[in-house]
Amino acid sequence: MLAEDAVLLREGLIELLERFGHTTVAAVGDSRDLITAVEEHRPDIVVTDVRMPPDFNDDGLRSAMELRGRYPELAVLVLTQYAATAYACELLQSGEHSHGGLGYLLKDRIGGVAEFLAAVECVATGGTVIDQEVVCQLLRRGQMNEPLGRLTPREREVLGLMAEGKTNAAIAAALNVSHPTVAKNIGSIFMKFGLSEDDGHRRVLAVLTYLRS
Question: What is the rounded CA–CA span in Å between residue 201 and residue 72?
Fold first, then answer.
């Protein structure tokens, strides 16, 4: 379901998603209606803006986080014009005890329809996608801090691409390295962050550690 107060954008997203085989069960323009609609329709994924009525602050994000608390399996993709790292951190923190996918994308930086649809499908199936610009801001802010400071430069590159929602194969292609090398780096990241085999969704937990640094 969609939560977007800009009518033309909302209607355009409905048409786009349905053209590629996805059903929009509800579309609302108010954060209060978002909660009501999710309770009624129980969608696989919510695509929402951050700033929405009634207060035009972070109402959409707050409603999405509240819903994540009620329905841990709910996937949430935030689609916004604000590259606010604090919002991205709050969204990821809301997923610590949840199972659904999470995403934070900037409207103006989505390069094409295929990119947007890939993000929706990734988040809907439990993945994590964070816009590259947000990742870069977080990296500049936290690369010398613990626990990020424990990582090698290559491991930080791998973790940044993980935060963008890339698979191991996509990371290998982006860095021009082998799949085993990517797997080794990811294993080292998990170890340095203290994420054991018993930790569910270790990939998400690693990204959350990254965002908090």
Answer: 13
94 or 122, greater pLDDT: 122
DSSP conformation class of 109: G
Residue 26: closest CA among 2, 61, 59: 2
The percent of residues in the chain predicted with pLDDT above 70, rounded, is: 82
Q: Which residue has the tokens 């309770």?
A: 39
Distance (Å) of CA 178 to CA 5, 46, 73, 171, 185: 44, 35, 33, 9, 11
| DSSP E strand stretches across the chain | 2-3, 27-28, 45-48, 75-80, 102-106, 128-130
- Predicted TM-score of the model (pTM): 0.69
Between CA 187 and CA 112 the distance in angstroms is 32
Give the pair of three-digit tokens for residue 173: 């292609």
Best CA proximity match to 50, nearest among 117, 1, 3: 3
DSSP 148: G
Question: What domains lie within the chain, and their CATH numbers?
Answer: 1-130 (3.40.50.2300), 131-213 (1.10.10.10)
Query: What six digits make up the tokens of 67?
Result: 């819903």
Nearest CA-CA partner of 28 in 62, 5, 51, 11: 5
